C-alpha cells in the first residue's frame, strides 16, 4: 500500500504575527515622527525624513499611519494615551482614578499625578502643533480642536469636584475649569520645566498643592488627599 500523495498546501497565514509586526512598525513610525516634529518643527519635517528615521519606505508610513496631518494627530493622541493607539477619555486609567476618588482633594491629587506622567510626552507635541498652527491650516484646526476638547474635559473635572460639595462657593464650574485648564497647559509645563528647571514631579506636586489651596473651601492639611 502506497502513501497518499501529499499536495503542497498554502503556508498558513499567521495573522497574530503579522498584526504584531504591523503594530511595531506603526510604533516606530510614530516615535520617529514625534522626535522630528518636536525637534525640528512640523513644517520643516518631511514624510521622507520620518521614513528614513524609522527605517521604512515612505509608502509604509502612509500605509501604517497616514499622511503628515494624520501623523501629527496620531503622535499627539498616542502621547496622551501612553499606548500605540488613541484611547477615549472615559477609558483612560487616570480618568477612572479621578472619578473613583471620594474627595475633591483626592481627585485633584489623582489628576496632578497623571499630569506628572503625561505632560513630558504631550507638552512638546502640543508646542509643535501650536507653532505650526500659524502657518498650516490643518495644524490650526487641530490646535483649536484640542483646545476645545481640553476645555470641555476641564468642565467635566470641575463638575466632578463640585459633586463632592467641597469647592469654594464663590467659584463657578467655569472658574474652576479655567484655572485648571491654564495650569495644566503645555505652555505652563514647558515654562516651569524647561525654562525654570523644575522636574515633572515638582510640577505635578505644585499643581496638586495650588489647586487644593485655590479651589477647595476647606483645604486639608499638607499631604492629605
TrEMBL record:
InterPro entries: Homeodomain-like_sf, HTH-type_TetR-like_transc_reg, HTH_TetR, Tet_transcr_reg_TetR-rel_C_sf
UniProt-listed Gene3D superfamilies: Homeodomain-like, Tetracycline Repressor, domain 2
SUPFAM superfamilies named in the record: Homeodomain-like, Tetracyclin repressor-like, C-terminal domain
Residue ranges flagged as DNA-binding region: 46-65
Span of domain HTH tetR-type: 23-83
Residue numbers spanned by region Disordered: 1-21
Keyword Transcription attached: yes
Pfam families: TetR_N
UniProt keyword list: DNA-binding, Transcription, Transcription regulation
PANTHER family named among the record's database cross-references: HTH-TYPE TRANSCRIPTIONAL REGULATOR BETI, HTH-TYPE TRANSCRIPTIONAL REGULATOR RUTR
Name recorded for this polypeptide: TetR/AcrR family transcriptional regulator
Organism: Pseudonocardia humida
Amino acid at each position: 500500500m502506497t502513501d497518499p500523495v501529499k499536495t503542497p498546501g498554502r503556508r498558513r497565514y499567521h495573522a497574530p504575527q503579522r498584526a504584531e509586526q504591523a503594530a511595531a512598525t506603526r510604533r516606530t513610525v510614530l516615535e520617529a515622527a514625534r522626535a522630528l516634529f518636536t525637534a525640528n518643527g512640523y513644517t520643516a519635517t518631511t514624510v521622507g525624513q520620518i521614513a528614513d528615521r524609522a527605517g521604512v519606505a515612505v509608502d509604509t508610513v502612509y500605509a501604517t499611519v497616514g499622511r503628515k496631518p494624520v501623523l501629527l494627530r496620531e503622535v499627539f493622541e498616542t502621547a496622551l494615551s501612553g499606548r500605540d493607539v488613541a484611547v477615549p477619555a472615559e477609558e483612560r486609567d487616570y480618568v477612572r482614578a479621578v472619578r473613583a476618588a471620594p474627595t475633591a482633594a483626592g481627585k485633584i491629587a489623582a489628576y496632578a499625578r497623571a499630569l506628572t506622567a503625561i505632560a513630558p510626552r504631550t507638552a512638546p507635541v502640543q508646542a509643535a502643533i501650536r507653532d505650526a498652527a500659524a502657518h498650516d491650516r490643518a495644524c490650526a484646526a487641530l490646535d483649536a480642536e484640542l483646545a476645545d476638547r481640553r476645555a470641555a474635559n476641564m468642565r467635566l473635572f470641575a463638575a466632578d469636584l463640585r459633586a463632592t460639595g467641597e469647592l469654594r462657593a464663590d467659584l463657578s464650574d467655569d472658574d474652576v475649569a479655567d484655572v485648571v485648564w491654564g495650569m495644566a497647559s503645555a505652555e505652563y509645563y514647558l515654562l516651569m520645566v524647561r525654562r525654570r528647571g523644575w522636574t515633572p514631579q515638582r510640577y505635578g506636586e505644585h499643581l496638586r498643592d495650588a489647586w487644593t489651596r485655590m479651589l477647595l473651601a476647606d483645604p486639608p492639611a499638607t499631604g492629605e488627599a
